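Sequence design from tokenized structure. All designs in this work follow the same two-part layout: the structure record, then the generated sequence. An example of the structure record is given first.
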């Protein structure tokens, strides 16, 4: 076994131990997605959906840590208040992240057209959205226990 293989095995083992210490179910990769107990996390690009049996519980989850925590919570209690707060925090992040990406794209187009007044205004709005997205991300990660 190479040094890299040993390090990778140690990393995986420590991650599994951390999850078990937090009383979380270990995620298992399947053909459909990632299975956490009887809850399935389905990925569509960067977006994840959480499904329990045939019921879609949460759609458009942005953060991986949020998806795993929501799946763990939903395995035990799908109508948890904690899950609602976590999902709302994740959606807040997603809203600001998408907004910041749109503003960044518009800013670049304004620069290409040499419309510097508009570019300056768009850059200011982009910075606000970017900062709000980062703040919302930190809140969601804190709620997820990441």
């Amino acid at each position: 076994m190479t040094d890299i293989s040993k390090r990778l095995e140690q990393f995986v083992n420590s991650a599994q131990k951390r999850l078990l210490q937090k009383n979380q179910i270990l995620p298992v990769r399947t053909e459909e997605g990632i299975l956490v107990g009887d809850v399935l996390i389905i990925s569509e690009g960067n977006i994840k959906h959480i499904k329990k049996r045939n019921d879609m519980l949460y759609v458009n989850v942005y953060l991986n840590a949020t998806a795993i925590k929501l799946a763990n919570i939903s395995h035990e209690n799908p109508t948890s208040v904690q899950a609602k707060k976590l999902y709302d925090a994740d959606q807040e992040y997603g809203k600001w992240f998408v907004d910041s990406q749109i503003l960044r794209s518009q800013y670049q187009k304004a620069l290409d057209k040499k419309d510097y007044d508009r570019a300056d205004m768009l850059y200011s709005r982009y910075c606000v959205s970017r900062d709000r997205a980062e703040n919302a991300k930190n809140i969601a990660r804190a709620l997820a226990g990441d």
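The chain has one domain: 3-144. We note this feature because it recurs in several other targets discussed in the main text.
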